[in-house]
Amino acid sequence: MLGASMSYFFLIPQALQRVFGFTPLMASISFLPLTVIQFIVSLYIPRLTARFSNTSVLISGVVVDTLGFVLGNVIGINSGYWWGVAFPMIFLGMGQGLIIGLATVAGVAGTSDEIADAASEVVNTFQ
Question: What sign has the CA pseudo-torsion 100, 2, 60, 83?
């Protein structure tokens, strides 16, 4: 997920600047649909994991995130910003909101208190 996301975060701003003539600032602002949805969804993680398992929520996040990438590819940037970029970003934000926090939790699960900080930093490094 992170590899695909980093590629997306690198390529989409360039495409927005070349295809739509966005300035670098406008290209960064155009990521607000993804960012806002990701923030909102991440607030529901405790409720979701209380009802479902961490693994179920994490897998659901991967499926939703993948759907966002597929939609972006199928619809295409030439369909316009709202349909071709912002709409898939909604699914990307939902998926990433479900994945990122739980991936960190999974990365440090089972570690002792003495090495929990180091384990967390290793997870952050790999992310």
Answer: positive
Quick check: 106 pLDDT over 90?
no
* 93 contacts 34 by C-beta, under 8 angstroms: yes
For residue 86, count other CB atoms closer than 10 A to its CB: 15
Going by C-alpha positions, the residue among 29, 17, 2, 24 that lies closest to residue 95 is 2
- Reported as a single tens digit per residue, the pLDDT across 27-38 is 999 999 999 999
Quick: pLDDT tens for 55-92.
899 999 999 999 999 999 999 999 999 999 999 999 99
- Measured between alpha carbons, how far is 127 from 6 in angstroms, rounded to an integer? 10
Residue found under tokens 């993948």: 66
Structure tokens at 58: 């994490």
Q: DSSP state, 86?
A: I
| The length of the chain, given as a count of residues | 127
Q: Is residue 49 a contact partner of residue 102, using CB atoms and an 8 Å limit?
A: yes
